[in-house]
Amino acid sequence: MGWGLAGDVVVLTDEQEIREQEEDGGEIQAVESDASGAFDDLEALQLIRVQGRDKQGRRIVRVVGKFLHAAIIDAQRLQRFVVLKLARFELESFVIVYFHTCVQSGENSPGVKALHQIHAALPAAVRQKLEIVYFVHPGIRSRLILATLGRIFLSDGLYWKLHYVSRVEFLRDYIKDDQLEVPEFVEEHDGELENNPLVDYGICVDPLHAELKAHDTRFPSTSGAFL
């Protein structure tokens, strides 16, 4: 016993489900056992922090893209760190608030493929408990890449959980102020966007993202497209 068939659909038997759960648990324990002090530098960056709860009672995981130094942080090490931080959510629903504010292509963005690999490395139970990803301050480039390459590299389970939020004030429709710490530079950029609303429609370029540089006309490769 291991696999069962129902018509043309392959279903997991209890034996296989138990084996997968044990494998997921083993991977988490392996990361935890090797994590004592190993990620102190990444913790210090405050890239990923568990905070309060949204209005539906789900735990909030805050991710600040600007704090990620993608050019110098090993992708595999980052993946292990994320798995460790999110391992606690096997039995608890959670949401991610990702601040894309001031993220520069190639400097703070790991790329679409890396996001896919990190998501795939999470235990199945954790992936299922992730209910939504609030993508705050997305730029035109990010929207285009996720609308095209995102459909290829991101699983449907993750792609359809993305929710774009152009202003912090709109985020408050889902999360109360006292449940989420918003970095000061994010609030400042939000105020600048209020004075330049055409950025939302792609008529004006968001200067902080610097996404359409005149000297860089290269189209990102599918293997490492930066957001």
TrEMBL record:
Matches recorded under InterPro entries = CRAL-TRIO_dom (IPR001251), CRAL-TRIO_dom_sf (IPR036865)
Q: Which SMART domains match?
A: SEC14
Ranges of residues in domain CRAL-TRIO: 41-189
Protein name according to UniProt: CRAL-TRIO domain-containing protein
Which organism is this entry from? Selaginella moellendorffii
